[in-house]
Amino acid sequence: MGVQASGKGQKSLSALTPRRRLLAVLSLALLVLASFMMGGSVGASFTNFASTGAPVDPGVFGLALISVMWAYDGFADLTFASGEVKDPQRNLPRAIIIGTLLIIAIYLTANAAYLYISPIGVMAKSRLISADTMGALFGQIGVSFVSVIVMISTFGSLMGSMLASPRIFFAMADDKLLFAPIARVHPKWNTPYVAITLATILGVAMVMTQTFEQLTDTFVLAMWPFYALSVAAIYTLRKSQPNLNRPYKVIGYPVVPAVFIAAAIYLVVNALITDPKWTSITFGVVLLGLPVYYLSFSKR
Description:
There is one protein chain. The chain is mainly alpha-helical. It has helices at residues 7-38, 58-70, 77-80, 88-117, 120-125, 129-138, 140-164, 166-174, 193-209, 212-240, 255-274, 276-287, 289-296. It has three domains: 1-49 and 57-155, no CATH class; 165-209, no CATH class; 211-300, no CATH class. The protein contains 13 helices and no strands.
């Protein structure tokens, strides 16, 4: 996993990405402040926070969680580049915990601002609630402002994903668990250029064939079974290798991993019951990797 970008490219990316992140966060902070300070002029009300009294369907609630989990899923991407992180035992846990707490705060305060401006029924019908909120406060200028910020934030997220995700393809190929050419490193830039190209082709193909909602649901459903299996491996490793050096400590073991696994199982099983067609297609595509593995790589 020790593949790094060139010095010039690495410095420019490291300088640009935090600026984009900061711009997105500051823009959301502006939206939240403007909503609570100016919302009264457009009929906003704290009564929108009151419960409607309607019963909550557990199945629909579980499906809604799939979209919600998309907002938090980036926590795992940090580990993709762990081989290039200085003092990972110290810095990775801090980055994951602090980053997740910040996302929770941003997500909840932004949604509180949306709900303050628009009742829950209006929010449910909105496809671009942030643009609708800014439009209600500032008119078309607000809509244009949010559109630009979303575009910048999207490119920033794409940059982070393309820096991290191809490392998985590279590491698998380097360990002879994927086709060998994918492990090639660019002779000049020292980047896993074949893995990056593969990730780009797959991304373009998925964007051209699915809607945004389908993409997010597919991604979350495809990833969470593997998250559950990874966490479940903690129990197996502790039992089979009790003397193994463990620089990371699991807080609340064995309860916390069990809660995580139970939540992941609920998410997946509920999706299979509530939306069997699309969930089956998603898992069917994932399972296609099994015959490829057994035919090409299992003997290695």
